[in-house]
Amino acid sequence: MKAIRVHAYGGPEVLCLDEIEVGAPGPGQALVRHEAIGVNFIDVYHRTGLYPSPTGLPFVLGCEGAGVVEAVGEGVSEVKPGDRVAYAGPIGAYAEARLVTASRLVPLPDGIDARTAAAAMLNGMTAQYLLRQTFRVEEGHTILIHAAAGGVGLIAGQWAQHLGATVIGTAGGPEKCALALRNGYDHVIDYRTENFAERVREITGGKGCDVVYDSIGRDTFPASLDCLKPRGLFVSFGNASGPVEGVNLGILSQKGSLYATRPTLYAYINTRDELLATAGDLFDVIDRSIVDIAVNQTFALGEAGAAHRALESRATTGSTLLLP
């Protein structure tokens, strides 16, 4: 079967469409035939080597997919052949089919189709842990979300609005700003033409935000800290513009006794109970139409390089899928 593999770290040109063989599932494993595969910025980090592949080179890229279980190995009780499932986490998703540890698979409710699931699992569960666990957003909070028109941003904006927060976002260009405003944001700042830290201070009457969610990294630091209230929380959960480096922790004191954290999804879904609870919360808000999952770009599996170019050039909005 076909899969996208990386033989050497680098740009989108290193993504190779290869023929590989997938064996029968071993103990604890399930064979999943993909119907849709999520494309996320963490895939770029793996492709470039910023996050080295845990399996070495070459490797199949991708951390998110949805499809149907075709076979299971010995001792598997979590799923059975014919089950519709999705997952986020184990690398190796850019393929027509793959083996997955069965305990990492989440059965899909009847109302969630494969494309929605593949677009929602990583971004949606990220939004869940950010808004409900890293900082529990409640009515009356004021929050700032960078990349408001991106996959996590569109989901988080809708969800945070439902929770009663005042939601401020940043996006690049009028079209992306307008899209964010249609998806839960009370205010959207065009970072291309406006100083977002100054605008946040204006919007909040000088008070600042309770929490800033930052997936951009280098380009938005340390200005993100200037958007916070005293004792506010800075949540760095991505590096779209490059990593934040060389930080003197004293800056947190200087800017108001701030808190800072660098969480990852996998620390929040480490156990199966945590995984099912996080996914269940996500499926609930989708099912109740609190959150709409926007699949705004689709590419064939062999067009993974084009998908990465679109993602890295910030030409995408919402979620991006590969269709095998």
From TrEMBL:
* Annotated Pfam families: ADH_N, ADH_zinc_N
Is the NADP keyword given for this protein?
A: yes
Enzyme class comes to oxidoreductase
Instruction: Tell me the SUPFAM superfamilies matching this sequence.
Output: GroES-like (SSF50129), NAD(P)-binding Rossmann-fold domains (SSF51735)
Q: What is its EC number?
A: 1.6.5.5
Output this protein's name. Quinone oxidoreductase 1
Q: What organism does the record attribute this protein to?
A: Methylobrevis pamukkalensis
What are the UniProt keywords, alphabetically?
Answer: NADP, Oxidoreductase
- PANTHER family referenced in this protein's UniProt entry, alphabetically: QUINONE OXIDOREDUCTASE PIG3-RELATED, QUINONE OXIDOREDUCTASE-RELATED
A single GO molecular function, which one?
NADPH binding
| Matching CDD domains | QOR2
| NCBIfam families registered for this protein in UniProt | PRK10754.1
Q: Where is the Enoyl reductase (ER) domain?
A: 10-322
- What taxonomic ancestry is recorded? Bacteria, Pseudomonadati, Pseudomonadota, Alphaproteobacteria, Hyphomicrobiales
A GO cellular component term found in this entry reads: cytosol
Q: Is-annotated flag, keyword Flavoprotein?
A: no
Kindly list any coiled-coil regions of this protein. none
**InterPro entries reported in the protein's UniProt record:** ADH-like_C, ADH-like_N, ER, GroES-like_sf, NAD(P)-bd_dom_sf, QOR-like
